[in-house]
Every structure is written in C-alpha cells, then in structure tokens.
Amino acid sequence: MATVETSIACCAPLAAPVLNDEEALATAELFKALADPARVRIVNALATSAEAVCACEFEPALGLSQPTVSHHLKKLTDAGLLEREQRGKWAYFSLKRDAVKKLATVADLKGVCC
Amino acid sequence: MATVETSIACCAPLAAPVLNDEEALATAELFKALADPARVRIVNALATSAEAVCACEFEPALGLSQPTVSHHLKKLTDAGLLEREQRGKWAYFSLKRDAVKKLATVADLKGVCC
Hints:
2 copies of one chain form a homodimer.
Chain A: H1 7-10, H2 21-33, H3 37-47, E1 53-54, H4 55-62, H5 66-78, E2 82-87, E3 90-95, H6 97-106, H7 110-113
Antiparallel strand pairs in A: 1-3, 2-3
C-alpha cells in the first residue's frame, strides 16, 4: 500500500535556512488545515482532553451537523494532525504526538529572527 | 484613531484551557494568513534575513508580479505578523517580534497534550 504523504510529514519550519517549493506548499497546507475556527476548536478540545474524543461529542460542542464535523475531522486527519480509531459505530480522535511536535517546530521563529 | 485588531492580537493558543468563539476565529485567521506557499516563503525569507527586506526583492525571488506580492504582504501585515516601513518609493518588511513569539505560543501543544 502506498504511503500517504501528509502535510505534516512534508512541511518545513518557517525558519528553515532553505525552503523548496514542495516544502513551502506542504507547510502552507498544514496551516490551511488549521485555518478554520471549527478545526481550531477541535484541536483545542483534543489538546485539553486526557483521552481520545468520540466524533459524536463534537456535534453538540461545536453546534455543527455530523457531516460538517466529519468534514473537519477528515481535513485534520488528512493533514496528519489527528489519529483516528474506530470503536464500533463511532470513530475516536486524538492528536498525533509527532505532529504536535512538528507543528510547534514549524511555527517557531524565535530562535532565528528575534 | 481606532486600534486595528489584528488576528495575532486576538488569537489564543491551540492549547488554551478555554477558547471562546472570537479567539477561535482570530486563531483560524492567523493560520489562514500563513496558508499560502508564497506567504510561507515571504515569512521564511524575513526570518532568515538580518535586515528588513524591500518589497521589490520578493518579485524575482518568488517569480510573482508586483500586485500579487503586494497582496501577500498586505495579508501578512493585516494579520499582524509583519512590520512595514516606507523608505522612499519602496516599502521594507520585517517580522514583528511580538507576533513571532505569539505564533510560537499559539501553535505549541507540546506542554499540554503529549
């Protein structure tokens, strides 16, 4: 099975000494995955939860329909930020540990410029 | 004169214990400002430059027309990420020190979840 290349896997830090076209695109795609208030709230909910969260919990929390919640969860998962686990009828989501580390690195310009 | 509220001024960390609607929106807007490969390259160029960079330098570097470069620089400046300084005919840009610190904080989930 082919490996799916996610944005998080291919992106480069904003502060990278050299940034090629593919890395700039992947980094932009990663930020794009987070460029929506509902997705910011989902990541925030997962960051502040001790356990994986059922997709069903986001509907009332965000006041959105199930298809809309599924769309947002898919965008975040495709970007490589979330881990998806099927438990019976529902999918449970958590933040990917590696992705969290990489996101922090990508957005950190402190050491380089200021 | 009214204070312009930038995304960077109003956003909240992805890991914030509580995130209200306005903060989620501002955080998403901040990521949206970075959700474009040309803007990622501009921020990268500014991060790796010791001095402010003339808008005129981005046209050949990015292979984009002047209006397109101006559009991207405006988006980043409006989000509160860049400082703009007029020197004669040209505008010079640099990263805002406060914004750089805040961006790193916003995207850092390491301490909270993993």
